[in-house]
């Protein structure tokens, strides 16, 4: 049972990467089939430029996530492809690019405009991260001074009620 977690992660990464390659192959073959066999007018330049991020991300995932074996033994399980943060954002870009390529295959080049959602989503994530960090540092930026002017800064509802009633009273039997 040595390295059970590493073996589980290696199996999960292998399955995820194989599924990713299968979906990417299917989406890209669909685009190329509809472009060349059915002679649909599709911009190959836009396809190459806007599909490149997904292909580069897929290559990167293959490089960091594929487990390596030496003599049948697991040497390295690979990075966790289900982690949060940048990896999660990269998966979002990959999935959205596949959706855009499928939409372009079926509906035409105007569907590339859907890809504009990726930078907008990135700006949204950056803004929410910035405002979250800024809000978390409110005490450093003088927010305590504003609360102190209000009078009851830092009191719970229970403390405010007790103070309003005249404070805590000790009862003797």
Automatic annotation (TrEMBL):
GO terms for cellular component: endoplasmic reticulum membrane; vacuole. Keywords: Endoplasmic reticulum, Membrane, Transmembrane, Transmembrane helix. It is a multi-pass membrane protein. GO terms for biological process: vacuolar protein processing. Its main location: endoplasmic reticulum. Residues 148-173 are annotated as: Disordered. This is DUF788 domain-containing protein. It comes from Pseudocercospora fijiensis (strain CIRAD86).
């Amino acid at each position: 049972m040595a390295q059970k977690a590493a073996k589980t992660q290696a199996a999960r990464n292998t399955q995820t990467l194989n599924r990713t390659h299968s979906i990417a192959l299917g989406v890209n073959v669909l685009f190329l089939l509809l472009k060349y066999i059915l002679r649909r007018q599709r911009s190959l330049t836009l396809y190459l430029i806007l599909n490149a991020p997904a292909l580069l991300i897929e290559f990167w995932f293959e490089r960091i996530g594929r487990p390596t074996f030496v003599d049948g033994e697991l040497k390295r399980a690979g990075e966790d492809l289900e982690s949060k943060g940048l990896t999660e954002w990269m998966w979002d870009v990959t999935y959205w690019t596949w959706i855009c390529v499928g939409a372009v295959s079926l509906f035409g080049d105007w569907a590339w405009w859907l890809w504009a959602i990726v930078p907008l989503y990135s700006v949204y994530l950056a803004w929410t991260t910035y405002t979250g960090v800024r809000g978390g540092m409110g005490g450093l930026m003088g927010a305590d001074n504003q609360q102190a002017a209000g009078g009851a800064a830092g009191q719970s509802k229970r403390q405010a009620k007790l103070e309003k009633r005249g404070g805590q009273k000790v009862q003797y039997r």
